[in-house]
Fold each of these.
Amino acid sequence: MAGTSSKLEANSINNQATEANKIEISSLSKIYKGRGGDTIALQNTDLTIKNNEFVCVVGPSGCGKTTLLNIIGGLEAATSGSVRVDGKEVNGPGRERGVVFQQYALFPWKTVLKNVEFGLKLRGLNQKERKEKAESYLELVGLKDFAHAYPKELSGGMKQRVAIARAYAVEPEVLLMDEPFGALDAQTRAQLQEELLKTWQKQKKTCFFITHDVEEAVILAQRVIIMSARPGRIKEIIDVDIPYPRDQSTKLDERYISIKNEIWSKVYREYLEVSK
């Protein structure tokens, strides 16, 4: 009985450890074939992301950040290795993963409300359910009064709020964000950073966020993943041990400044590798 009890306890501990890991990336490589030769975008990449964790990925252009996000999202296939979400191997897009791109990707002929409803319709919700859920998420991002506007009538920041509301509305467990604020002005970007953090703290989703902005990475993330120059690998992972809630005043904190400078110096070394 004692032996059986020990095995059950060991299995329980192993199951708990697996459940705590939302995303598990193992020996992941991606090679693009071309007439001029092969391009190794990712090489033997290993990474574990915990449930409800917020991580940001930084690194020089062309280091494979977006490729990694696309593979996690099931939008691209890996050449070798694997990605698992909740222990299940990723072989394509899934309802547990939502993606927000830099380009908004809104339907110009649909209203704000209908854009947010789109994914809900694909999931089989009836009209009343779609409308109620879409309105609740538009309210969450501060756009309920613009439900019947069209994308052309919105500013860049408002369009990105719609894209975020649409991603949240389908209630994914993992939110993948590819430089969603990169094209916005500094003030709008700062505002959306704070709104995203507030929403994440309410919803507690797992966030995988790509950015070129080290300041943005440190204000948002619990951990910052630094990728090497091509071929892309995980160079280093930095813990951001600054308590939440955070806002723009956090940038005056000595600990914030120290972490930002540490990450920037490491990223800059990778940029120098690219320019050689």
Amino acid sequence: MSESANKICIFCASSQACHEDYHSAAYRLGQILAEHGSTIVYGGGGAGSMGALADGAISKEGRIIGIIPKFMQDLEWGHSGLTELKIVEDMRLRKHLMMSDSNAIVALPGGTGTLEELLEAVTLKRLGLYLNPIVLVNTRGFFDPLIQLLSDAVGEGFMDERHHSMWQVVSTPENVLTAISTAPSWSIEARKFATL
């Protein structure tokens, strides 16, 4: 499998104040993806789940690419042990580069930045602009309220029933690769029901 065909984008948090279970899940995901030979692309941070993800991948000699805005790097928020750290001008470019060429997106629990990244990915998929799997790792049931909110959006007619298949939910990092490989196919034809 080529690098570009095995590149997984991870959205995760930099908070160090959250429960250790979140950091443990991130570390384990890094290990699993590295063992699988996947290239990890993430936000480049060295703290919280971001740092744990990177440390997990590095512990298994995995390839991990960080993409970080210049202002964050200037604040020394970047991880120093990555395979590659790309410094970009702003948050928008960071997000674009993280998603581009990835064969899947995996979201770990996080705050506003992580949620914004995840919801943009779901929106792009709804519009047929991102066609690959999106997997939510639901550690400690963190994503339950968001999953319910999206279900309510379908129930209230803001989204189509078919939009439920845009994302997969797993409870542990060990289930991520299976969720990616078994995700329903998605195509540009999704535009036909994007506004239903």
Amino acid sequence: MSTEYNPASLDAETLALAQQLIRAESVSPDDAGCQILMAEYLSELGFRIESMPFGDVDNLWALHGDGAPLFVFAGHTDVVSPGPLEAWHTPPFEPTIKDGLLFGRGAADMKGSLAAMLTASRRFLTAQPDHLGTIGFLITSDEEATALNGTRRVIEELQNRGTHIDWCLVGEPSSNLALGDVVRSGRRGSLNAQLSIKGIQGHVAYPTEALNPIHAALPALAELVAIEWDAGNDAFPPTSLQISNIHSGTGANNVIPGEMNLLLNFRFSTASTEASLRQRTETLLKLHGVDYEISWSLSGLPFLTSGGELIPAVQQVLAARLGIETELSTSGGTSDGRFIAPTGTQVVELGPRNDTIHKINECVATADLIELSHIYSDILDRLLGEGTR
């Protein structure tokens, strides 16, 4: 796609780029050529392009300008599976615009945001070719699945090089009812546990010769889910625990099972720690005399951007363009911001509405994508424009 600047056609270019990206069947961790398209576009704008593959994951690192401060657009090209194709009104990888909506897998999460980032950069660089500092892109194909070889690995490499990101805008779909009504200023932590309750298998007619792990665990589990782990704080809701999976038994109605397996997940605030949640859980299981084994895995620690220049810049742009006072939120799932924020970077998430993400017939309003591109370029202007010197 040509990068010759034409303000009248740049809005249409945002939609065209989004459609090109949606056509790529980039089910995680397959990038399916999305980053090649983005790299070619950014290269024509003068960005220095670096590919950072790790394992089967493609990662893109691109820079324009020199020195501090470094502003980075972060996002992912991978999408979740479309599910049953026959349930879609239109094929998920054949982008379709109908009634002001762009349909396709990844339209909202988050190929629309990627397209808006590209055209926002073009708009800004045309007006500010000698901008302050550096603009960067950190793009991965490993966000929706394991997230092991994507942003996490790129950040590790950048830290080894001594590269510090000052501001990072993640294009996750943060908006709820209208574009820009919610901005993520942080995220809760996510802690997972695989819990196995041990029993003794036997015949249901002879319960004294067996040990039912379901019966043994129920009092402990009832107490576990009733605990108030913390009260949250001004920035975070209270920590919550959910039992997401339970499996036990052979399928026969006359066999007492010998084991019960559960999956647990904590979404936790800064009022709790990984260590405190683990300790309280295992102390309770021991108090109930449960014979158990448990393994823990941390998906990410909670993070919060509460100071600095990034949040005010985003708030000012949204107020100026949309006439709204945006809500700062830490709700929702995890994002790659959890790998970036611990380095001392100010992180914010701003993208389109999230009401159709991961769903059949995922879509985004075309007017919102066009506006999002302007919002992104205005944020660049407030932070890196000539007027900020």
Amino acid sequence: MKEKVLQAYEKLAKDYEIHVDIESGHNAYYERPAMMKLMPSDMRELAVLDAGCAAGWYSEQFIKRGSQVTAVDLSPAMVEACKRRVGDETAVFTCDLAETLPFHNETFNLIVSSLTLHYIDDWAPTFREFHRILKPGGCLIFSVHHPFMDFKHFDRPDYFAHELLKETWNKKESGPVEVTFYRRPLQEILNVTSAQFVIDRIVEPQPDIEFKDKPESMDWYKRWFDRLSTNPHFLIVKARKQ
């Protein structure tokens, strides 16, 4: 599975770097505004891990807010894209979140993982590592596919199954790319999180109306606003280390 994810995102890296920030409404007008509302109001001097940094959008936001950012991704191509974005402002390197993480205990105040964890089969070791490297009182904020969306969109027979799904994405730079990820029920997501952390917030985002009337976003809102206002696509969890 790791090899499939790596192959897909090596192909997708250029699309993420060039197109995703502007052209992906699901990111720009849906997931990212909801995630950013959960961030601390004052991020100055916070040690932040961007866990699954892709082309570096979140890393750049945190740097602008004065955080000390470390960014990691499984894909070397994504790491290079992130480096081009943030320059020498942060440490960026390849890292497998399913393995032991190369950080000392209690290193970070905040771990942010955007639309990454559904590529990992077993979350328990990853969350134990997140707990280990977070400082007491530190937060984990992550977004994943909503289990209801995957269950409905892929017409699955068993909501409670933990299963591997496949989807083909057709992007401008890469063309068709097969992307594989895991679907799991809501109870599994919450139970594995609460085994290590105290859950503070659960968010089922709806499109952010702030961008609705902007010329570059109008087509996306016409297509997706009603659907995403009534059918959750992503799930966001904010949790805390005691």
